[in-house]
Structures are given as C-alpha cells and as structure tokens.
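anyone else get weird line breaks when pasting these?? whatever heres mine. first is seq + tokens for prot A
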Amino acid sequence: MQVKNNKVIVGVFAAVITSMILGANGGITKAFAQANPAVPGTNQGTSSNTTSGTMSNMKMNMSTSGTTNKTTVVRDSQTILLEGKTLPAKDFIHLYDSTPYMIMNGHIAMKVPCDTSSKPAVNVLIGSAPNVKPVQPDLIKELSKPGSMCLYHVDVGSDVAKKVIQTDIAIQNPTNSAITFPPTSTFVIGVNEIMPGAPG
C-alpha cells in the first residue's frame, strides 16, 4: 500500500511541474545550447538564439529560423607526402580547394628543401583560382636546417570586407629546373572555419 501511494504522489508531482512549465509560457519553451569556448567561431558572450549541433563530424551554428549563420566550424586536415614526387620547372601542384566555401580560418605547415638563407625551394600559392598569389611563409627556426630542409607555417583566412577570398592552395616551382622532393617533405593543411559565398 505504501509503494502504491508513493507512485501516485510522484505521478501527481510530475503532472503539476509539467503543467506549470507549459502554462507559464503558453507552450513548450525552446532551449538553446551554450556556446563552447573551446570551439572558435561560435557566438560566445552574445544573446543571439543559436544552437550548436554535430553532424558527420562537422560542428554547425544554426539559428532558430533554421538557416545557417555565416560561418561553419569544421576540422578538415590534409597531409600530403611529397617524398619522391617531381615538380617540373615553373609548374605547380594544386593541393586544396574549398569552393564554394571560403576558408575563414586555416593553417599550413610545410617541410620542404631550403637554401642556406632558409628560403624555400617552392612558393605557396593561395587565393581563389585562377587568382592565386605567392605568400611569404614564416620559418620555424627550431625545426629547420638551412641548406637542407626547413619547416614553415602560413595562416590562411579570407577577408570579405577587403575582397580577399581564399579557397585554393597550391605549391609552385619558381625555378627553371625540376624539383624532386627528398624524404620527409610534407605539406599539411588544416581548415578550421569556412563560409559560403566563394565565387566559382
């Protein structure tokens, strides 16, 4: 008899709480997830109604109207092993294309042959094809051997206000001789955030 009374009390208590929630707001209320401070590009510290979800390893910011915000947080990483590959004179290798999305936040690390002044044997080309241009990579001195192999970093990011659109990444041989990449030659691309609207 005691167990039966407890079940009735719990059932009545649950019904009262449910009716209070529904009655006070005129229906079911929407709940919004809090932005994750560990994920860049989320709306931290704002009062906009956004939720964060994960689908196919892609984190997306969704508004309550069902449309996506301007940027999508992703983690796409490509490692290209160049050992034994030959890059002919004045030619290029196209390594990455995010079209129709612009790369808003990304990073490149490349380990390639370099001269005694730590100048890389290849150019890094970034832009929106066919408008790609060489960029100056940053040397990582601690992990480089001038005259042999050097490690470089390059940040990648579009700026719509300045009409800088970055979707394509390539390496180019600027010399008049073919380059054959030695062991440990690598090119690593990491894309963290993209936005729709890239031309092409």
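and prot B, same format (seq, then tokens)
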Amino acid sequence: MLPLDETRRELTLANHILAKQGLLLGLGHISTRHPVDPGRFILARALSPNLVDIGDLHEFDLDGRLLDGSDIQAYGERVIHAAVYASRPDVTAVCHCHPIELLPFCNVGVPPKPVTHVGGMLGET
C-alpha cells in the first residue's frame, strides 16, 4: 500500500494524464480509496482535472461527506464515488467521465434523446 503522500501525488498525476489523453477534459473526475482508511476516499475539489494540484485533493467518507471541514466546492457526483467504494471494498479507484465517443451507445435500442447538457437545446425527443 502506498503512503498517503504518494497516493495524493499519483492521484494528481492521474488527473493530468487522463485530461491530457482527452478522457476527462473539463468534465469528469477520478478518485482513489484512502491508502490507510478504507472508509475514506480522496477526490479533488470541483476543478478542471488538468488544473488539479495536490492541495486541491480532499478526503470524503463513504456517504460523500467532506471530512476536512473546509468549504470547498465539491463535485456533486462524489456520491457516485462514495457508493462504489461503499458497495465494492475491492475497488481502489473510480473514474467518472462522459467521453463523447461513448455517448451514442447510451441510446442503443431506444428513440434518440439528448445525453449531454449541450443536447438539451434539442428538446426531450
């Protein structure tokens, strides 16, 4: 298991790599389970992944509550990360993203509908 400082450094690096590869872009985020306390996970504040620095990382519990008492703007989707960690003790990292190349597959077998915020201008159907 990695010490906390190394885990935080690698999570910062993961944000930058996934942003550079176009997976996260301005939307999406990656978290990791805490290396010592499995009832916690580490996630950056709501910030574009390519801008994340070690100081932007914060700890959350498995209900998605911020544990450090700061007043940062946290990702609303942190509860998705929390639910995965709570239900799957074997999972050590979670990446939530919306790669544009995969979005058409969200509608396979159903009538077309908007699947991104920019598609909302098209209406419900």
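btw re prot B: Helices lie at 4-20, 78-87. The radius of gyration is 16 Å.
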